[in-house]
Amino acid sequence: MPAPSRGRCFRPRTSGTHRWPYGFPCKRPIKSMMPPFLWLGLFALVAVLVGAWWIRAQYVSAHRRSMRAFYSLSEDIFAASSPVEIAEKLAVVLPSITQATSVRLHLFNRRTKSLESVATAADPEPMAASIGGEQEGLAAGAVKCFRNHTVVNIPDVRRNALVNSGWKAGLPRSAMFVPLLAESGTLGVLEASSTQRLGYFTADEQATLQHLAKQIAASMKLQEQKTVREQLFRSEKLAATGQLISGIASDLRAPLERIAELSSSLLTPGSTQSLDTGLKQLAAESMRASEIVTRLVSFARPGETAARIIDINALAGSLLQFRQPEWSALGLRVQNHLSPEPALLLGVQGQIEEVLLNLLVYAEQAAARAPSKTVEVSSAAMAGRVTVEIRFPGEMNEPAARDANLEVCRAIVQNHGGELRLRNSQSGVSFDIDFPLAPGVRATTATPARSGRAQTLLLVEPDLGAQRQLIGLLNARGHRAVPVRAEEAADLAHRVRFDGVLWAMRPGGSKWSDFHERLREAVPSFILVSDGYDAEFAVSLSENGGFLLGRPIQEDELERVLDAVERRAAARA
Fold it and tell me: What is the CATH number of the domain that holds 507?
């Protein structure tokens, strides 16, 4: 059969009941089997699906924007520093994520026993509603919410019996009141109202408002705690300043009395003292009194708050020289072991001077009551930090720490990136003031070049600040330190090879002697760090293969011990 021509169709040829097996060409096109109304229905269905998808996309996009605004509002509430800032954020953001058109924040005033609204730019008029009496208008809803500690939802303000306001102009059509609940009680009420619709707020909106109310209450408690801490800090600082003023006033009395005595002797007729000698003594005592007053004024001068480079060794040395006359009068012996090399740090000189002087005054008062009457001041720079130690006889408990205003001093030191540590030992009390050196400034003591291989030391130091110092000091010399807790040291020393153990003695800490006896054969060197250096104990420890270092650690002593550890490890290898 010939192939059909292109563009034509073939139908079977029939005659009566007989159908021809072959087709013949048909010039008419085949008509569509789908009616036109079906095509219209298909197009309508596609249009409906596209419209539904677009509506859903718009809804999802709006929901995402609303959630982002909600999370941002929650963060702003916690970051707010005052109730006014919270109320301003609520008034701006909340209408965009709910159907509320206005928001008010009512806080409870314990003194007046009333709810006071927080004034905002959108609602600057103040309002106060007593919780003890009957109120009208929306204030009645806020008072009922506060009394019952529950949510009050008013679908129609003008017909509600509680509000009882009638058809007054400016009233919203619906309102909702949410209590600000905290552990200590109800702090206030969050009010949200709408002037555009009647009915209850939706379940999602109610959940949003209740969640925001909890966050507002938590933020208010945080603000209250922060205010209490600031007031406590100010009161402690005032107490420290008062104690310092009392001590300096006592110091000022001596030169003033001396000036009065010299003046009287010069004015007395027939005095044997020459005028020149008397005037020189008067000038010296006047200069001393002026220096005392200058230091006192510098502590309270608010303008000097800019940080600058300070040599803490020179600053501590000047304070020792400043207190020397009083120490001589008290019969105190002062051992000045400050490093002659400058130790530069970045800070406010008046604040650091206040810390050092406050601690020195307490140390001299404690040493004056002790039989030894000795105050020792030393400093050491290592691994990018400088430590000033003030050691004196006696012991220190919590009341004594409060008397020394230790928390105020610690806060000032921490603001400068440092740490203030108090250590009680059998030999006495020690204040360790640790500061980071200024950026780009290294300790001026030259570090000898290391020869030989790097040593791996097991470090047992519970104090994190001292631990960081030791690790930095060892790393600067090319050695490695592995910090570990005391109870885990023995197990780790059995499993890993170490060239030595660096163990810091702390009050109430684990016994280093048990560890030393058990692992003397496994670890070639044992370095003990104690609060003081005892020569006899050092000799006894060296006979058993150990070394003793005293705090603060001197770099030359550390170098000597590390060289001995390296030689011993090389001999054993």
Answer: 3.40.50.2300
d(CA 307, CA 39): 81
Question: What are the pLDDT digits (tens) for 154-209?
Answer: 888 888 888 766 566 667 888 999 999 887 788 899 999 888 888 888 888 888 88
Let me know whether 88 and 223 are in one domain: yes
Using the 3D structure, point to which of 192, 227, 262 is the last residue of a domain: 227
One domain, residues 424 and 484: no
Q: Say how far apart CA 383 and CA 372 lie, in whole Å.
A: 34
In a shared domain, residues 83 and 166 = yes
pTM for the full predicted model: 0.43
Distance CA 429, CA 96 (A): 62
337 φ, ψ (degrees, to nearest 5):
-115, 30
Residue 84 placed within a domain: yes
Phi then psi for residue 391, to 5 deg, are: -115, 135
User: Burial of 474 by CB count in 10 Å (0-12 exposed, 13-18 middle, 19+ buried)?
Assistant: buried
Across 540-567, average pLDDT: 79
Q: Write out pLDDT tens, residues 129-159.
A: 888 877 778 888 888 899 888 899 888 888 8
Burial class of 144 by CB neighbour count within 10 A (0 to 12, 13 to 18, 19+): middle
